[in-house]
Amino acid sequence: MIKLDDIYKIYRMGEVEVGALQGVSVTIEEGDMVAIMGPSGSGKSTMMNIIGCLDVPTSGHYLLNDEDVGSLNDDRLAVIRGSQIGFVFQTYNLLPRMTAQANVELPLVYGNLRNRKRLALDALERVGLGDRAGHKPTELSGGQQQRVGIARALAKQPSILLADEPTGNLDSTSSEEIMAILKSLNEDDGLTVIIVTHEPDIASQTRRVISMLDGKVQSDTSGEQSSLVAANEPN
To answer: How many CB atoms lie within 10 A of CB 108?
Structure first.
């Protein structure tokens, strides 16, 4: 379970303080599928960075599976990122000279995991790219590259998948394919999926939409209302 309790994140730029998050309180249950929306500067990316243990709050408490993340040292944060959380990026972040399989194996090397080849191939099969394991990114379409990115996140066998604008660089057909994979991972595999997006049609496919503005949660809707909130969200 993810629980943000009265989270503030203050950045200091010289003598100026910028409040990226201002009293955010959100609970995300295991197995949920959530979209975080908001215009530029709303705090949605800062919120994702804190959830992903890439940053820590200035004040407040972030509990991840009952562990207070704000009290952890860098080594423990790295362990959590390496074992519990998978990251999917808008720009794929694949190494161009490495094959799809090698790209998926890379974080497993850093994590010193055994059976790296098997884990990588299984992850590529899960996203429908088992027959493209030996291809380099330049030999793959944008949608296929993003599927490699998802496979790379899955290979660590995380319980949480964080996707930052995962369809932002894709055409509509590829976007549909990526969302079908993310929904399957949530519904069939039980992964907690959190998506940062500015696209209403993407957010409307999740179970819940958290709308951010000026560092605060403006609305938090689930079920049938989430599609309406996503449709009315400013870009």
So the answer is: 21
